[in-house]
Amino acid sequence: MKKVTLLTGTAAILAALSVPAFAQTEMATGANATGVAAIDDRITDIEDDVTDDFDRSSDPDRFGPSDRRQGLFGSMSLQYSGSTGNSESQDLAIAGRVSYNQAPFAQSVGLAIEFGENETGDKDKEEVSAIYDAQYYFNDRFYAFALGRFEIDSLVDGEAEGSETPADVADELTDLRRDGFLGFGPGYRIINNDSTTWRVQAGVGVRYTQTGQQYIDDDSETETGYIASSRLYHRINDMMFVTNDTDYLGSSDADDVITNELGLNFKMSDQLATRVSYTTEYQENREIRTDNTLGVAVVYGF
């Protein structure tokens, strides 16, 4: 089909949802000492959560890769804090993402490194996380994908301190020191027009895990996993669109997990936009297998 431009009714409502901007407040001198800045940071965190909710619902990949930025690009960030005096501690966080898009092929790699020491000088965080995401489009409808994730928590070593409770000792042995997943498979856009898009994808994957006890025993576990996803977007009119996202993750040994999120997004005015979502999560072999969550996000700018 002909490439759909973003100057359509679909894009118009998406743009409208982002128009009501949150007000930015200039912090006065003394805000840090009085605690005003800390509350302002919390307000910003809440605002970010709401805007992220809207961004996810818009599904920027629903039309395919035609509007993706080409070439190599990315970002890196570093944060360090250290304190002395009544207590001594330090924390270091490094994060970055690099993407490379060229014609039908798009891929990105993300990395996060976090280290921390508490007031006694003992390590309280030593984690490394990495993700990988790639798609290759054979045509406007058919594509292949790959998803990868790997996490390391070096503090999970199965060696509990004597002062810890029996529950802490048990957790140390069962918590994951390493957890990785790599999956790949085909995807297909069943519907792809300016009012409705629907794509499905399914594939096979491999999960690698190592608990604290397995680290002591120099052991690990690798199992085959199966993944399937569906992304449906439908524009009802210039003021409203609905989305339905479904994901399935299963394996030969671990419990099957199914999640479904139904979302309704609408612009009530040029300043007010609302999103209502209903999320269902099913997990096999737990006492109450299904959890349901109702979410409401509202953006109002003036």
From TrEMBL:
<feature type="signal peptide">
    <location>
        <begin position="1"/>
        <end position="23"/>
    </location>
</feature>
<feature type="region of interest" description="Disordered">
    <location>
        <begin position="50"/>
        <end position="71"/>
    </location>
</feature>
<protein>
    <submittedName>
        <fullName>DUF481 domain-containing protein</fullName>
    </submittedName>
</protein>
<keyword id="KW-0732">Signal</keyword>
<feature type="compositionally biased region" description="Basic and acidic residues">
    <location>
        <begin position="53"/>
        <end position="70"/>
    </location>
</feature>
<dbReference type="InterPro" id="IPR007433">
    <property type="entry name" value="DUF481"/>
</dbReference>
<dbReference type="Pfam" id="PF04338">
    <property type="entry name" value="DUF481"/>
</dbReference>
